[in-house]
Records
---
Amino acid sequence: MKAIVLAAGRGARLRPLTDVTPKPLLRAGGRALVEWQLAALVAGGFTDLIVNHAHLGSQIVEALGDGSRFGARIGYSAEFPALETAGGIARALPMIGSEPFVAVSADIHSGFDYASLAPVIEDIARRPDKRLAHLVLVGNPAWHAEGDMGLEHGLITRAKPWLTYGNIAVFHPRLFAPLDPNASLRLFPWMYGFAEQGLVTGELFHGAWDNVGTEAQLAALDRRLSGKMRP
């Protein structure tokens, strides 16, 4: 199964750390953030991986190589400047191909089981006219108490109460095929148009989940992971 790991963000709130090190290579628990993500994906059966990059991207390529030491095959999609999530996926579409794929941010850490998405991928591939995307949501953290979107009867909505997008998703490539591969485009609010058509499902993940956006969040994650067994 195929996945794209989104690693092109600048990490402005983590400056000055990210002035010299790309955010995905910042370390927690003795391992780069992106390496935790790669290990979790491979454990879930995703071994055909694409990593997009922009800021200090050559460091990411050098650190991860061809992916063989992770038990995966890694290809790279370079952006300059960074194209945001939807734009970055559109740029990488020739590498992604025609089958549904997982998209995940390089700067999150969670206990989510990626293997659980295999039936979702199969269903989206079988009936893309009914289902084009699937989003994993989490409870609202303190720093994002208002949330992003609603979840009703398995469908993403704009009705409150809102939950937070967990930066884990399954997409059908046809979503991104009409997009300009050289244009910057955020995933939201663009994706809400498809949700309003009933084409975007979702689930609520109750396990451990961290989105590392500040130095304090990185330090807290490091403390929790230090000394723990790697996945």
Note: The helical segments are 17-20, 33-43, 57-64, 84-96, 118-126, 192-196, 215-225.
---
Amino acid sequence: MAERKKLGVIGGMGPEATSFYYARVIAHTAAAGDQEHIDMVILSHASMPDRTEAIRTGKEEPFLQSIEKDVQALEALGCKNIAIPCNTSHYFLPKIQAMTNVPVINMIQESAKAIKRRFPEAVKVGIMATDGTISTGTYHRELENVGLIPVEPSPERQKDVMSLIYDDIKAGDHGDRRKFDRVYADLTDNGCDVVLLACTELSVFKEYYQLPDNCLDAMDILVKESIVRSGARYR
């Protein structure tokens, strides 16, 4: 058996997405009893400043100061890897990683590599994400690095994405399927072979609706990396 490593999680962005992340880690860990699951420290920091707003306004310090305390706390508690189930926050990943010697799992990079493995014939990838993630091009760069062409929704359909995330999921609703379908059709009509769910609120949405087979959820990739890097077996 591989050496077990304690996993640190900076969550609360949003709280329901963190809950689903934890449930998926438990569900996908091959374990016959409690002791075969991985040790985790989850900080559900719901009061964390909004990531998209920090990017949009350029006022990054409140967010960075908040997350630095979390990173240092997890390091002090003996965590050997850190997972952040929030796509938009990965824009700040270089600065976050510089705050600690503990490796922070790069969900964006791992998702791009997963698309190449799972959809080897894919050329174009549609990105469903917050305005913050779209505007910074974090997924665009990683997809291009593995030879894929990133495609974002039209401005009108991006409004649907943001409404689905903020007006529906973050407000506690399951989400309006019609909004998702409009965005999915927009991306596939533009030649996308794969549609990437690049926001953890969309991961929550996926729990309530059956989505097309060519949709890949970035949170699922983070879950697998979290389990494997902690020394457990993914199932």
Note: The two ends are 15 Å apart (CA to CA).
---
Amino acid sequence: MKALLLSGCLLLALSACQKETEEEAEPTYADWYAIKAPDAQAIEAVTGDIDGTLVIMTRYQVYQTKDRGKTWRTSNYSSNIGLFGFAQVQDTLLLLDTQSQSSSTPSVFATNPSYFSLDEGLMWQRYRNWRYDSHQPQVARNQATAASGSSYQIDVLRTPVSPGSASNWVETVGVVSATGRKVALPQSHQINSLYFDAKSRLYVAASAPICSQREKFAFCGEQNGVLYVSKEPQP
């Protein structure tokens, strides 16, 4: 009887472990790796490489992973200044804390470096432009160019709030190439930025999945953002 009870307890323990693993597993898609943010915020930007060190930012924090998001290390960034992008300058990684939009094009940029890191995004120090250079790095958020030279941008759908209205509901419905090729994501999201690694794989930084848009906007469940990485290089 004692052996039977012990066997039953072991089975229950194994079942619990299996359930926990299944709940924590990321969804599997044919064309994409999907990596969930470690906090309940949208992913604003990404840099690095999924096969090595990957660094993401949510609005107020920076995280680093070396195992495709299975575990995360939290950086020492502790400012209440919101973040919008990364800029790599030789061996230095910069945090950009301002978003700007071109008046003549639909381009959106992350600008104004405020912190820098020399260890791939874990330890940050205040950035000072001691030389007062007129040129400051800026990185496009809504578009990116692969090593092959192909350009992609966030595909945006604008719908008037009401007939004749100058105001629009703005939805990001995927990614589109300069040649018009549509790149669909597995679920609907608010897409924040695009990035390519050296292998021309596309990275899409986004919010949590969205199940309802416009005036009935709602997330499908938890609000942890999602990073999509294409399994193959983009043409």
Note: Residues 1-24 have pLDDT under 50 and may be disordered.
